[in-house]
Amino acid sequence: MELMVGISVLSIGLLFAMDSLARAAVAIKISKDLFGAGLMLEENIYKVYNTDREEGVEEGVARIHGAVFTWSVDIKRIEEYSMDEAAFNIFSNQEKSRIELTAVTYFI
């Protein structure tokens, strides 16, 4: 009887340890996906900044670290101030994480 109780306690402890490791693995993957989305957002901002800007929407799909991201850049000309407004959107809907990043900036 004591042996059965001991094995039950060890089994429950092992299950808790495995659960904490699984949660850590999911957190690492979400963090990796979020970091990749941030890098893509930064890359799109530099790309728009360093090229000739035209009004309109540009969209695309990219894969970073195995995750698929959809991105869009919406550029509008503000004639009153002679500047461009750019809205950058990054979206990913993975099975365990949903990522949506948006940044709006102005270029002179």
Outline the fold blueprint.
Elements: H1 2-49, E1 56-64, E2 67-78, E3 83-93, E4 98-107
Antiparallel strand pairs: 1-2, 2-3, 3-4
As a percent range, the share of strand residues is 35-45%
- The tally of structural domains comes to 1
End-to-end gap: 79 Å
Q: What share of residues is helical?
A: 40-55%
Low-confidence stretches: none
Helix-strand pattern = HEEEE
Radius of gyration, whole Å: 23 Å
Number of strands: 4
Largest pleated sheet: 4 strands, antiparallel
Shape: rod-shaped
Q: What do we call the CATH topology?
A: Pantoate--beta-alanine Ligase, Chain: A,domain 2
- For CATH, the homologous superfamily is named as GSPII I/J protein-like
Which CATH top level class fits? Alpha Beta
User: Given the helix and strand composition, which structural class is it?
Assistant: alpha+beta
Overall residue-averaged pLDDT value: 82
